[in-house]
Each structure stands twice: as structure tokens, then as C-alpha cells.
Design brief:
Layout: H1 27-30, E1 61-68, H2 81-89, E2 93-101, H3 113-126, E3 130-133, H4 139-149, E4 152-154, H5 156-167, H6 171-185, H7 189-192, H8 212-248, E5 251-256, H9 262-269, E6 287-294, E7 297-303, H10 313-318, H11 324-327, E8 331-337, H12 343-362, E9 376-382, H13 391-399, E10 404-405, E11 407-410, E12 416-418, H14 420-432, E13 435-443, H15 447-456, E14 458-464, E15 468-476, H16 477-485, E16 491-494, E17 499-500
Parallel strand pairs: 1-2, 1-3, 3-4, 5-7, 5-8, 8-9, 9-10
Antiparallel strand pairs: 6-7, 11-12, 13-15, 13-16, 14-15, 16-17
Helix pairs in contact: 2-5, 5-6, 6-8
């Protein structure tokens, strides 16, 4: 996979998917890689790590396991539904499930010793070679469970990282996934290697007696820092691009739980061509396209990566740049699959992740974030065509008064089959801002700006002189602010002659400020 191609010497490899048959379970706990009898002065290549790091999930029979704690967040209607979907995305065949309720996890094996023995018996009875836990486990816990069950153990974070790695197609996404994998791997290196014999010091080592583990850790740290520097350059460029786009366009971001229908909505509203499928994490690529909302107006619509509960913190940190389009949007559309029994948990997860991202932005020192403000959130109740009746829909509409019920699947005319007009009207009102009747004056040389105003507003009257034109128009405040930000030489006044100050979105992105002096300016 991409995440090991650039490392000069092999380290503990990240999670990988293979199609061949897995090695016998005993190899994961007892295999010791070959080690040279006479260590070289300068190590040229490391021994291969234990086979358990080559996690061959595909086509393997797997048992799902979980410990339900008092504060655990999961879908009570289908406790293993999401984990099963994740495992199947990685290619595993789920053949069993086992859960246990505890007040707190057991330090050695996370679940109780008796339950681990029961887990081993279940694996033997259904012929499972892999155990997937719905939690992030420590290296010690993974090792202890593997020792008792003689099966390969994968935790939730490792599984999600593997799926992300298989879907990462852009350079940025690949960097983000590899950084997350290295962050996950670093504290687990000790359990991934059994060849901790001491080697002789020499050129290129810290001194006599350095362990192979210490070399591995330095390699991982060096690689991660290198990737982070490379990613920082991409993120800085992305911030500038997003800021420039916001100065010239009204931006709308689509966010939501994975498989909520975001890409389907994006494709229906634009000629986006985003990959859409009924599976988790169908795409990791953020796409932005122009969305024609009628009346000569348009917005830039962005489709983003989906959220999931208990997402590994390594991925949250790495994928902040991927969500840049959403966190810096003027308007956020939160997609929610109301036909899903776990809709409330999904809604809370999305808002929790957004709150975390917004808290980080409030502390940002980047110049592009200087005037950042949290965007307005609008809830889209998707997949209403799958509801048996409207009882559940009415509950959500009472919870979120501004929500819009939609079905993202296009109809014969290519529009949303439900809720199209309501959504377009809401976005168009946001693009325009408050509608006011104003006298707008421009030089005749601003022909392009005059044309835009003619197309995007209601012109009530025109007065020309030798060098300028004054248009009496009904126009949105934000529309004028965007024209001013684009460099148009434009001034405005109320119908009784009071000067109106038009905000420049280059200084106040998304926050147009309007002031009218009490005394009208002399003509």
C-alpha cells in the first residue's frame, strides 16, 4: 500500500487487505522473524515484523465483540450494525457476535476473562479466524486476547484506518491516512516485534546496545514528521483557496454521517460526478462544484467525507483539512437519514465532531481564520421516502424547526424528488441576504457589474449621467457586499438619500455590516 512505499527500511507495516488465505492463528503470537547471527555494524535492513501486522481481513470469517459500558454510545436497536457494516466494507464475513456489559473495562483483556474464553469457544464453533472489537484496544490487550483465543484481533480504529487507506485516492488523503496510521502504530511497535535482541553500535546508531525497537521508533517518528511537513504545505494552500473562493462566492457545505446520502444530494444538485454508493465511506474526496439556484444566482456546493461515531482521534486530526470546505462554508447542510433507527445517535455524533472542529478554529492563528465565524446549520431530513408513516418525520421537525424534509434521489426532471423548492429557496435567501430597496451608483465603465445587478436583482428605475448610472434596485445586502469584495466601484444609498456602507467581504467574510448615518450626505 501507499503508506510503506517511501520508508527506506521496513517498519511495522500498516493494516493491509489481501485476497490470499491467512496464515494459521499461531503465527500471530509465536512467529519470530529471522535475525542475523552476526549483526552488521550498520544495519541495512530490518527483520520482517510479525505476521499479525499484515491484517488480511478480506474473505476471513470474523466474530464481532464489544463491551457495553454505562457511557457507551451505540445504536440500541442494532448494537453491532455499524461495526458489521465496517467489517464487511473491509471484506470480512461476519459469522458471530458477542457482547458483555461491564461497569468498567478489564485492564488486561478489556472484557472479562470468562467472556474471553467464551469468545474463543464461539470462534471455534463458527470457524472464525479473526476477532473485531468495537473499541480501541491497547497493544497489551490485543496481545493478551490473541494469546487466549489464538485468533487475530483487530480493534475499531485499525479497521477504520484500513478502510480509509483503501479509499484514499488523492495525495492529500494518502498523506492524511499514512500520518494517522503511523500515529496509531508508534505506541504499538513493541507488541509488533519480537526481535528485541541488542545490536552492536556503530555509525548511524545512538551507541552500543541500542535496541531494534528504538531504531523503529526513530524511523516512524522521522517519517511522520516528514509527512506532516508535506501535509502542512498542502493544507496552507487549501486554506488560501477556500478563503479566495469565499470572497467571490457563497459557499455551502454538505456534512453528515457516513452513508446519509451526501454524495447523492451533491450529484442531484450539481453536475458533480461524486461517487455515490450504499456503503460506509464511499468517498474520501472533497468535491466542490457550482450550483445554479436560479434567478441568476449560484453557490459553490461542497461534498465532504462522512462522520462516524468513535472515529479515531488520529483521523480527526489528520482530516481537518479535508473538512476545510465545510468548516469555512457560509452555510452548512447537515444530512440525516431519518429512516435509520440510529438517526439520533448519528445526529449527535455529527454535531459533536463539528463542535470539536469549530472549537479548534476559534483558537486558530492562521490569517485566513482571523474573521472566521461558525456557519449557520440547516438540518436536511433525508430518505423520507423510506418511512412507513410521517410520525418519525414530525418528531424531527419539532426538534429542528428550520429542518427540510427531502429525498436526495433525483426525479425525472433531475430535481430532488422531495423538498427541492424548499431547499433552493432557503439557499437563495441566504445568498442574497436581506432584500432592500436601494439606489446603487456605478461608473459606466463597470459594465460587467451593471450586467450582474440587472440579472440578479429587480431593477425599478435607471438614471444616467455622463459618467455613471444610478439604479434603483431591490437587491440582497450580501449580493452587494460580494460585488464590493470583487473590486467593483460601487456605492449605495437609501431611497431618502442616506449613505449605506457596504461591507468588504475580504475583511468580513460572510458577515456583511450595514450602517446608515442619521443625517443624509449632501448631494
Amino acid at each position: 500500500m501507499f503508506c510503506t512505499e517511501h520508508i527506506d527500511a521496513p517498519i511495522a507495516a500498516p493494516l493491509q487487505i489481501h485476497t490470499q488465505n491467512p496464515p494459521p492463528p499461531s503465527s500471530f503470537s509465536n512467529q519470530t522473524p529471522p535475525f542475523p547471527s552476526t549483526p552488521p555494524t550498520l544495519p541495512q535492513q530490518m527483520p520482517q515484523p510479525q505476521e499479525r501486522t499484515q491484517l488480511q481481513v478480506q474473505s476471513e470469517r470474523a466474530v464481532l465483540a464489544a463491551v457495553r459500558l454505562p457511557d457507551s454510545s451505540y445504536d440500541h436497536h442494532d448494537p453491532f450494525g455499524e461495526l458489521k457494516a465496517l467489517a464487511e466494507q473491509a471484506g470480512a464475513v461476519v459469522v458471530g457476535e458477542l457482547s458483555q456489559r461491564l461497569e468498567s473495562p478489564v485492564s488486561a483483556t478489556y472484557m472479562g476473562a470468562g467472556k474471553v474464553t467464551e469468545l474463543k469457544a464461539l470462534c471455534e464453533s463458527v470457524g472464525a479466524t479473526t476477532i473485531i472489537f468495537d473499541h480501541e484496544l491497547s497493544p497489551k490487550q490485543i496481545g493478551n486476547i490473541e494469546k487466549v483465543t489464538t485468533r487475530k484481533v483487530i480493534d475499531r480504529s485499525e479497521l477504520i484506518l484500513d478502510i480509509f487507506a483503501s479509499r484514499a485516492t488523492t495525495v492529500e488523503a494518502q498523506l492524511q491516512v499514512e500520518i494517522a496510521q503511523l500515529s496509531y502504530t508508534y505506541p504499538r511497535l513493541k507488541s509488533m516485534w519480537s526481535h528485541l535482541e541488542r545490536i552492536v553500535g556503530g555509525i548511524g546508531t545512538r551507541g552500543p546496545g541500542e535496541q531494534q525497537l528504538e531504531i523503529d521508533r526513530r524511523l516512524v517518528q522521522k517519517r511522520r514528521l516528514s509527512l506532516e511537513r508535506e501535509l502542512a504545505v498542502i493544507q496552507a494552500r487549501k486554506r488560501r483557496e477556500v478563503a479566495a473562493r469565499r470572497r467571490e462566492h457563497f459557499t455551502v457545505g454538505i456534512v453528515g454521517y457516513t452513508n446519509a446520502g451526501k454524495s447523492t444530494l451533491f450529484n442531484t444538485l450539481t453536475a458533480g460526478g461524486a461517487y455515490a454508493d450504499d456503503r460506509l465511506f464511499a468517498t474520501l474526496v472533497t468535491r466542490t462544484r457550482d450550483w445554479d439556484i436560479g434567478g441568476g444566482l449560484s453557490a459553490m456546493l461542497s461534498d465532504t467525507v462522512g462522520f462516524v461515531r468513535d472515529i479515531p482521534h488520529h483521523l480527526v486530526a489528520s482530516f481537518k483539512a479535508t473538512l476545510e470546505e465545510a468548516t469555512h462554508a457560509d452555510l452548512l447542510l447537515i444530512m440525516l437519514d431519518v429512516s435509520d433507527p440510529g438517526a439520533e445517535l448519528q445526529f449527535n455524533t455529527v454535531n459533536s465532531v463539528l463542535d470539536e472542529l469549530f472549537d479548534d478554529l476559534k483558537k486558530s492563528n492562521h490569517e485566513e481564520d482571523r474573521f472566521w465565524a461558525p456557519p449557520r446549520r440547516v438540518l436536511l431530513l433525508n430518505k423520507i421516502d423510506r418511512l412507513k408513516d410521517n410520525a418519525e418525520l414530525l418528531v424531527w421537525q419539532r426538534k429542528a424547526a428550520e429542518s427540510i424534509a427531502i429525498s436526495a434521489i433525483p426525479d425525472a426532471q433531475g430535481r430532488l424528488s422531495r423538498g427541492h423548492d424548499e431547499l433552493v429557496s432557503l439557499v437563495r435567501a441566504a445568498v442574497q441576504g436581506d432584500i432592500r430597496e436601494l439606489n446603487v451608483t456605478l461608473p459606466l465603465s463597470e459594465a460587467k457589474t451593471i450586467s450582474v445587478i440587472e440579472k440578479q436583482s429587480e431593477v425599478l428605475d435607471r438614471e444616467y449621467d455622463a459618467s455613471s448610472v444610478t439604479l434603483r434596485v431591490r437587491i440582497g445586502e450580501r449580493q452587494l457586499a460580494m460585488l464590493k469584495s470583487a473590486g467593483a466601484k460601487i456605492s449605495a444609498a437609501t431611497t431618502d438619500g442616506a449613505h449605506v456602507e457596504i461591507a468588504n467581504l475580504r475583511q468580513q467574510v460572510g458577515k456583511a455590516r450595514w450602517t446608515a448615518p442619521t443625517e443624509p450626505e449632501p448631494r
